[in-house]
Amino acid sequence: MRLSPYYIPVILGLAFAVPSFSASAQIGIGIGISVPIAPPPLPVYVQPPMPEVGFIWTPGYWHYQQVGGYYWVPGTWVRPPQIGFLWTPPYWGFVDGAYGFNAGYWGPHVGFYGGINYGFGYGGSGYGGGRWEGGAFSYNSSVNNFGGNHVSNSYNERVAGGNVSRASFNGGTGGVQARPTAAEEAVGREQHVAPTAEQTSHAEAARADPAFRASVNHGRPAVAATARPGQFAGQGVAQAKGGGRGAARPAAARGNVATAHAARRTAQHAAPAHAAASHQAAPHRAAAARAQGGGHAPAAAHAAGGNEKHH
């Protein structure tokens, strides 16, 4: 039986200790996931319309399970756990000959997420899709799809990123070669909040569905993004417009060495079943033409090099 290049038994247990970039950012050992093959490239997809004002976009990402290998967790709109909180996406990082998963988290600031270009405001560092102003979230119309919602708290600002790669991991051969800034290291030491119950159930539903496995969809999931968590059919579902196998080969075959990897995020909260506990995307091309009547038509394709929005 020939196995998919995206499926190989996972090594579960104590995650490797990742050398920090400064003494103050020393990270300990926690329960984590280590995989000997790289995750697939990020698929290209259109951002579904925001279901309601008050939701914040969380990008899709590849996760891993022992039975089935890599699987896609669709991007989706979610309500933040509290006012003032922003989402730091998860990411994979190469170190010591394997790829480790760093869980996403909520907090008052956006931390390091590997320099991965997830699009839609997550250009590799920080979040350009919106900001909190006086207890209300203000949206950047250049990278968000408002759908038919009238959004009174909005602004239009071009978002620039730092890389044009669709790589979904940091470090190693073919990965994003980004390192955390001093500010991002400081965020890593802050207290964080784990993904919400909606995010957890959303990821668990994706894990349970074989269609999300890279070994089945070959890196192009039929449901790449959703308007609401767990909504995998009907309106508000976006299919991958591009993707593929990329260079997902065992780390030993890739000739990687553990020399380029970003600092791990401190595991301050137990990660849910879909995200092992350990913490912490590329210029964005955003054409921000406002639609008549205060709404925005379907938009925002996350492609190599950034976002392509068509209103």
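Second entry:
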Amino acid sequence: MSCANCSYELPEGAAYCPRCGTAADWVCAACQQPNPALFVHCRNCGEPRQETAAQTRLAPSERKFITVLFADIKGSLALIQGRDPELAASLLDSNVNLMIHAIQAFGGTVNRVMGDGVMAIFGAPRAAEHHALRACLSALRIRDEVARETAREVARDAKPAAPRVQIRVGMASGEAIVKPMVANDFVGYDAAGEIVHLANRMEQLAKPGGILMTPRTARLVARDMAVRSLGPASVKGMPRRMDVYELLRPRENGHAVSARHESPAVALVGRDRELAAIVNARDQAASGFGRVIGISGDAGCGKSRIVTETIRRDPGDWIVLEGQAAAYDQKGYRLILAMPSSLSQRRQPPRCFSARVL
């Protein structure tokens, strides 16, 4: 059988095309008629689609460094008490949908929806740089969006004394086992490990409107986010008290701070060819030829380190303008606008500088 999208010959029992990812057609067990993936009943005999071992399977697990986020509505039972079931479901669903949209806006994967809350993972199933930062930005957006929705609800509600929606968020970063689950045409992901339980514990410790995180998450976002230490706290299941941090707000010029070049902890090894290519292009630019260099690679493979090393080894008389783009922002012009601001970080400003952006 061939893929309906790209005509690739599918392996026997494949539920998805290995080339383009399109769901494979299924064959009716009663009449052997091929049917499109979206069909629930056979178009020839009307028999319902039967789930097979090839259509439901547990894909291989992977060890990944991720950030896990839990968010829920504090006191949801008191919030919906006495309400009509449809109105209660509408209230909870609208706020949970706000959480889901905020998580997806920054590249997170929602893997559990639990009535009045969600669990999400950042950095998996697809590796993403700054996964802890993405989780923090999602948490802040969840808090702000729910607060705005609550304010609108208060303006419409004739009972000002009724309980209001208040959320709490917990986050933890570290290694976990990511387990993809494939069932028919649905692909889901789950995570297992200590950080999943820690993120849940952080959520439970948070006060209404609070966002708590573990020390490792706080270290990962310290340059971009303002956090406050709440000191050691008793965490259920942990043998010792654990430092807990509260997320406050993004730092001003946080991305510019992150983009600064720092002294590398270890020597760079094995990138001589790449460094030579950059130096060659730089020398040609100094001779009057326009040059642009693009460096691509998987998250964590050392792209920023190559640039840092090039500047560190031979800074010369170049004026280095730095800007940092965010994949979740999708506004490329901010990269250009950030570059002139990096001049203010120089100890000795250049004698003369002029530029024109076309």
